[in-house]
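Sorry, explain these tokens?

***
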Amino acid sequence: MQKYDLICPCHFGLEAVLKREIQDLGYEISRTEDGRVIFHGDADAVVMANIHLRTAERVLIDCAEFEARTFDELYENIKAVRWEDYIPRDGKFWVKKASSVNSKLFSPRDIQSIIKKAIVDHMSGVYGISHFEETGAEYPLRIFINKDKVTVGLDTTGDSLHKRGYRPDAGEAPIAENLAAALIMLTPWREDRYLVDPFCGSGTFAIEAAMLARNIAPGMDRGFTAEKWDNLIDKKLWYDAVDEARSDIRPDVMSDIQGYDIDPKVLAFARENAKRAGVLDTIHFQEREVARLSHHGKYGFIITNPPYGERIETMKTLPTIYRDLGEAMKRLETWSLYMITSYDDAERFVGKKAAKNRKIYNGMIQTRFLMFPGPKPPARKKQETI
């Protein structure tokens, strides 16, 4: 089976989490760069990565890498690629997105036009035709140019992998599903520990945690562009992978996961999202303000995305919100707090300095993932054997 270099973009700062996920699937990492992880794999790897990766944005086949400082160099290098190995005669191909950083070539529109022309010219020579109907499956390309190095990726995914299919109603100030999953995976939380999100919004943290607990593959119930690539991937691979993913679900796992918010309409969205994700019976949603945050258990986790002040709350209300969160954590003295925020005074009003501080981009907003780990629970006594 044909082997590829597969590129998985991710949020900046979370490459290590994605790398671990890919390794857990059994694939060899080629290299890690800012905002992406590259690994070796075949058609089966394309399928497994799309269905199982929680923290990636998409899966791209690396078609070519080269340096180009002029449009002539870009054209000649693109034309030299064996495009017939990827795109059939009736395939629809175009540059979905072109981005350029610190490079001589910087116009996305011109880059897209030159690449399309170069591919057409190459394919014309191979198939002996000058006009392509493009009535078949779609083969979108994504081009990254960084310091004059061009990377050409064939997009196997389509809609970003953060779109699991359970959240058509995102509510206000949502956090992307793949970012929420990655942040949870940065913590020591496991399905047998309590988890509360006091600013749950549309329920993303709670839902992603419940899906992790039950081992529900994030891409199991959605479609992918490469499903129609009969020339590269046998459809049976998709059917078999989904069947295997369904058989691996742990329906009997019942974690204690709770989501609070002050907006009943948003909570209604959260419940619908959890229902679509198949985890509503694992999560308890409740209308409750952060000042009333409490829990009967010990050694739990607060994992949350509180207001930053950009859209929902005015800056004047933020000190009270973060101060109330800090007071709640004093009551939950054995608990751990993990939160993503761009609010510079978050630690000041929580009343405690974070043990760790990780810079992460939430969309275009530079945020910090503040970690306040609590004490570890006592070791469980081993049962005596007779």
